[in-house]
Amino acid sequence: MQTPSSERILEKLSILADAAKYDVSCSSSGSKRKNHNKGLGNSTGGGICHTYTEDGRCVSLLKILLTNHCIYDCAYCVSRKSNDIKRAAFTVEEVVELTLNFYKRNYIEGLFLSSGIFKNADTTMERLIAIARKLRTEHRFNGYIHLKSIPGASNALMQEAGLYADRLSVNLELPSETSLQLLAPGKTYEQIKKPMLLVSQTIQAQANEKRLLQRAAKPLFAPAGQSTQMVIGATPETDKDIMYQANALYQNYRMKRVYYSGYIPINPTDTRLPGVGTPAPLIREHRLYQSDWLMRFYGFQVTELLSDSFPQLDSDIDPKLSWALRNLHQFPVDINTADYEAILRIPGIGVQSAQKIISARRFGQLDVYQLKKLGVAFNRARYFLVCRGMGPASLGDLQDRQIKHFILAGYRSKFSNAVSSQLSLF
Ligand code: SF4
Prior knowledge:
Number of strands: 8
Largest sheet: 6 strands, parallel
Shape: globular
CATH superfamily of the largest domain: Aldolase class I
Strand content: 5-15%
CATH topology of the largest domain: TIM Barrel
Bound molecules: iron/sulfur cluster
Distance between the termini: 46 Å
Helix content: 40-55%
Number of domains: 2
């Protein structure tokens, strides 16, 4: 039977978990915190629940706000002070208790804790740290902890937060300072970037020390690094503006991840925002993530993907294919002689296939059959490569628009074949 106090906790949980769902930066990758001293949990261990919401957001952590009371009035945020919604606040003990209970039941792999800003930045940050400290020191909790940093919190608090959290993040909020001033007038880029810089410098200093001493500096500061997120589609920045901003964040603040959160219309009366019924399309979010991936793992420069003359990503084809079609002079690439970097740029060839190609060709020249066996998506790749038995005429006189047409037609017929074979089952 539920007691009045457990009912109240459940009510708070439903309010504060719902308010936290707009924050998409909840990835837990990159931490290797091990269980020790017979403590509880292990951020890399098995039995971890990974679940995704309908729109693809990861909810593998207990993802909650400490409170949705907030002194700020950011136009795009459901918790803004002018919004007439149910408010709630957890106590430190309640969050600790919930985390431990959920963890023991194997519902979660850790905690993602954010908060509205009550009283001021330091008071809020102190409360978040108190939860992480209690989990780590009193309950020897070794599961994953991701803490949101509160812009404007003191350096000393940020330093302490990093001792308990695997990952720290502070949201950039919007892709440009002009938009931030318009929609979140209480915040500034300076306030947001100061803790980012501190985290990045501390992580760098720790890495230097580790190199010098040949062992990890103890205790580790934010071992899973820092991340950030931007709301996209609420303001007029182009994909180029967004990706150049992301690139600067990766370069200047050693970000592990930049997240792109498609704007969800939640404030229909604010004329500064796009209207209800025009949420940022999920495909835009997806293309931004693909471009981000190309920059981090495929060696692409942001300037190759987007420029003044090409400021918006294609929505009908992925950014790698789009780049290849704009740069046909770089193709075809000879699979049997080209270097890894050039092979990786061929549409339809991913990191694993490229690595397999490099290994396999040591034993002989590769042909179409072997490439397919190595995982190459040949229907896409065929226009951009040569291999044994397939000469440099593969591109022939085809223009970029024709190649795009053939590839898209291939997708469509693959899709309709899949649908008809599904239907034939019934
Ligand atoms: S400070 Fe954070 S919680 Fe408060 S209104 Fe702005 S985005 Fe929302």
